[in-house]
Amino acid sequence: MKIALVTPAPRGSRLGNRVTAVRYARLLRELGHQVAINPRAAHEHALLFALHARRSAGIVSAFHDAAPERPVVVVMTGTDLYCDLPDDEDAHRSLELATAIVVLQPEGLKRLNAGWRRKAVAIRQSVAPYRGRATPRKRTFDLCVVGHLRDVKDPLRPAMAARDLPTTSRIAIVQAGRILEAPYRAAVRREVRCNPRYQWLGEVPRHRARHLIARSRGLVLPSFAEGGAHVVAEAIVDDTPVLASHIDGTVGQLGADYPGYYPPGDTLALRDLMDRFERDANFRARLAEAGAARAPELTPAREREGLSALLDSPLLRG
Asked: Whole domain around residue 259: which residue ranges?
């Protein structure tokens, strides 16, 4: 089948939507399909996969107008589910036109109304284990933060929390990601200058980000909203424990009973969680075990099976 896969993230981008698009293209090709990412004539394809309901709304509408009998799959992102969905008309129209809807973790299904939920499936993002050598630094107890800097990610919360750790703490916050919103340029410079526990690497290639996650003692995900963070999946398969804000998207990945959550935006709670994580080896082991229990759900074979089942389902076959 000829499949058009559209994403608002351009070629070469390291944004999550582009990572998902490239992975979907590979898995769909492994299933025997022809896939083009952001083709000029999407309407000439037999099926459309559209990442991001709001930002891909124009292409979804144009595809439906040109070929109303051909199926459209809309893949929901974090901003779709937790920011746009309540009242954005473009996102709503995409979901109304969609033949099927994909969310990246099961909690996302709860955000959809009954009509949309009937044509929705949850397919978890997959990750292959990191194959390189990744040895933690001995001088510091590194906690990494990996993701581009914008308000919805609350990116400097870990650095702020680290300021008030006990003087005996060896925790260092190592952050990788591009600044997407201008105010963070000055904020990052100020944090680097004033916070000896903070290091910002800027935007790094995918393999370097992956190495950082694998060699760190833990990953901190401080976001206010996530559709299903790819870095959480990477940390799980690389046996890197996760400390995370308690939000639906991450609960959908780690489970409601995961012990490593803190209230979103709560600097003191995150400080205490990081302090406990450093001092308490049993707590670290509990987090590692809880993550390892999720790893079998995140294999490429499992995600490929999910996509295959979707393409063969009554949703798309009529």
From this structure: 141-297
